[in-house]
Write a structure and sequence with these properties.
By secondary structure, the protein is α/β, with parallel strands linked by helices. Helix content is 59%, strand content 10%. The protein has helices at 2-7, 11-26, 29-66, 86-98, 111-124, 134-144, 158-164, 180-196, 208-217, 224-236; strands spanning 101-105, 129-133, 167-173, 201-204, 240-242. A five-stranded parallel β-sheet has the order 2-3-4-1-5, with helices on both faces. Helix 3 runs antiparallel to helix 5, helix 7 packs parallel to helix 8 and helix 8 (180-196) packs parallel to helix 10 (224-236). The longest helix has 38 residues, at 29-66. The radius of gyration is 28 Å and the shape is elongated.
């Protein structure tokens, strides 16, 4: 039986196997146990390296899909000076768990930084997240649909993707220009996430009322703005103001 086993290998391999068997037989029981433990440790270490490599590859892929600019990849909530912004800080810290937040305030307050930090934290925990500005979102939606309202064969279904991604940050809302069709698509996106109970992060320079007025003035049907604001507030909690002070 053993001879048949060795015969299945090339001569050079058979010689090495015989030497290994001979060496093993020469070991004491204690030495054999030590050798088995050494092999087990080596196997565990190799498995851990392979797992870490797979995780690193996955995270890099998540970063590539996130849409976050390179300058925000290292964004952390602790980077900001939260002096005078305790409500915003508290909301941002809660959002590390809920992944939902609505921040509004002046330009330069750090709202985009916060949104990027929250999406980045999700990625650090192996959860897919996307950050996109309102203008870019509408541009991609328009580009991905043909005149009949169907997704172009060569394009990604933007509404479908953003509706399902585990964490979504819509940055800098309030600069969009709508057609009736685009307004319907935007509402469909928010409604899909609401129905699926998926989190949402929103940043804007506008107060909720200002956002409604802007959307109405930019081509959105009057009925959509208030409905969207209410729906987003239900998903994110009450809008939190962030004042323009940062380190």
């Amino acid at each position: 039986m053993i001879a048949d086993f060795f015969a299945a290998f090339p001569e050079e391999s058979r010689s090495k196997l015989r030497d290994a068997v001979t060496r093993w037989k020469s070991l004491t029981d204690e030495q054999k146990r030590a050798e088995i433990e050494r092999i087990d440790r080596a196997d565990r270490a190799r498995s851990e390296r392979e797992r870490d490599l797979r995780r690193a590859v996955r995270r890099e892929r998540l970063w590539q899909l996130s849409g976050i600019e390179a300058r925000f990849r290292t964004a952390l909530l602790t980077d900001l000076d939260w002096s005078g912004n305790e409500p915003a800080r508290s909301g941002a810290m809660r959002a590390l768990e809920t992944r939902s937040l609505w921040l509004f305030g002046t330009i330069g307050a750090g709202k985009t930084h916060v949104a990027a930090a929250l999406v980045g934290d999700a990625i650090a925990h192996d959860t897919e997240g996307v950050m996109i500005s309102g203008v870019a979102m509408l541009d991609r939606i328009r580009a991905s649909y043909d005149d009949s309202g169907l997704v172009r064969p060569e394009c990604v279904d933007v509404i479908g993707r953003l509706s399902r991604v585990p964490v979504l940050a819509l940055d800098d809302l309030g600069k969009e220009r709508f057609t009736p069709w685009a307004a319907e698509r935007f509402y469909a996106l928010i409604d899909a996430r609401y129905s699926a109970k998926l989190p949402l992060i929103v940043t804007t320079n506008c107060t909720p009322r200002e956002l409604e007025k802007h959307w109405a003035a930019s081509g959105m049907d009057d009925a959509y703005g208030p409905a969207l604001v209410r729906r987003i507030a239900e998903m994110t909690g009450a809008p939190v103001q962030m004042l323009g002070r940062r380190r």
